[in-house]
Design brief:
The chain is α+β, with helices and mostly antiparallel strands and about 375 residues long. The chain has 3 domains: about 80 residues, conserved putative lor/sdh protein from methanococcus maripaludis s2 fold (Beta Barrel), CATH 2.40.420; about 100 residues, Efflux pump adaptor protein, beta barrel domain (Elongation Factor Tu (Ef-tu), domain 3); about 110 residues. The protein has 3 helices and 23 strands. The strands form 6 sheets. The protein has a 6-stranded antiparallel β-barrel with strand order 2-11-14-13-12-15. A hairpin with a 5-residue loop joins strand 18 and strand 19.
Length: about 375
């Protein structure tokens, strides 16, 4: 069967097919575009921050706020040691005793002297009362009454001397019983039972429990940049802990510290867990930049929560072409609070993603809020 199609009808047919195909393609493109828009991850972006601060980095050591060296004021052998290193003690607890036989003998002598002086005073008092009555009756002379009065006063003085000697002996006895001056922990023990204790020589060292501070030294070139109450960022690598402390004390003299000024940094109560006296700490103290020497090398700071960790690499998601996420590898510096310094890989004028309402990966479509 032969179908005859005129040239005009053929042209119209081809044109109609072309229009239909173009319409179909346009519709598919719109559907694909709408599909991509619907699957794009909504993100929040920000620019890196820069502060006008620089930091002083120093080293310090954790120490107890209060510590005491326990020693004695008398010489003698240690007869008993009730504690060991690491033991917890309470205020007034008996720690050690020193031999006190000689002091006990002196106390016995003073007790005997008190008994003797008491008997002498009673006898002198009776004579004084009798001669006072006789003098009033004009049966004794004034000279006799004066002599008896002197004897009576002398007897009272001898009794008072004996009592004060006993007080002195009792005080010496207290030096042979070493007690804890406050609640704490035994940090050091230098002598054991049988050793000779000498006056002023430390036997034990007690440190107050759970109350810590950090001691550090600062050079004279930077001490003027540090102020009481300023924040200090403390990192204790031994327990992998970072927290903010406060400068609580600044020594105004370096005469006895080799030109270094001692500062104390208080440790917050909630951060004392797992800390021990003697641990070393790295301290970062933010200070204002010297504006006369500003080189323009401001820090690039980003939130630590925006950093991605993959194996040994660190990166951050930035905005790529066609609104896609681009993972940028960066090199990090020191941490300041909840922010971290970016040394390379990101500049101050580049945006980065701080939050995403979905899982980010390299090349995924994103939609900025």
């Amino acid at each position: 069967m032969n179908i005859n199609i005129s040239p005009n009808r053929l042209v119209k047919l081809i044109a109609g097919v072309s229009v239909f195909m173009m319409s179909a393609c346009t519709s598919n493109e719109k559907k694909n575009s709408n599909s991509i828009a619907d699957t794009a991850i909504v993100v929040s972006v920000a620019n890196p921050t820069s502060n006008q601060l620089q930091s002083l980095n120093i080293s310090g050591q954790i120490e107890a706020v209060q510590s005491a060296n326990i020693s004695t004021r008398v010489m003698g052998f240690i007869t008993k040691m009730n504690v060991n290193i690491g033991d917890h003690v309470v205020k007034g607890q008996l720690l050690a005793t020193i031999s006190n036989d000689d002091i006990l003998a002196k106390r016995a002598q003073t007790d005997a002297a008190i008994i003797e002086a008491t008997a002498g005073l009673k006898n002198a008092q009776k004579d004084f009362e009798r001669f006072t009555n006789l003098f009033q009756q004009q049966s004794a002379s004034a000279k006799e009454l004066e002599n008896v009065t002197l004897q009576y006063n002398s007897a009272k003085s001898r009794l008072e001397v004996a009592k004060q000697m006993r007080n002195e002996v009792n005080v010496m006895l207290t030096y042979t019983n070493l007690t804890a001056p406050f609640n704490g922990t035994v940090a050091q023990k230098t002598l054991d039972v049988g050793s000779m204790a000498n006056p002023g020589m430390p036997i034990l060292t007690i440190e107050q429990s759970g109350n810590y501070q950090i001691s550090a030294s600062v050079s004279e070139s930077t001490i003027n940049q540090i102020h009481l109450g300023s924040v200090a960022i403390v990192n204790v690598s031994a327990v992998d802990k970072t927290f903010n402390g406060t400068i609580s004390q600044i020594n105004q003299s370096s005469q006895f510290t080799g030109g270094q000024y001692l500062i104390k940094i208080s440790v917050p109560e909630k951060e004392k867990n797992r800390l021990f006296a003697g641990m070393y700490a790295n301290i970062t103290i933010p200070v204002k930049k010297n504006m006369n020497n500003n080189t323009g090398d401001d820090q690039v700071l980003v939130p630590m929560s925006s950093i991605e960790h993959k194996d040994q690499l660190t990166g951050i998601y930035t905005i790529g072409n066609n609104n896609t996420a681009l993972l940028r590898w960066v090199r990090l510096g020191k941490t300041e609070g909840n922010q971290v310094e970016v040394l390379s890989g990101l500049s101050l004028n580049e945006q980065f993603i701080i939050n995403a309402e979905g899982r980010l990966y390299n090349g995924v479509s994103i939609k900025i809020k």
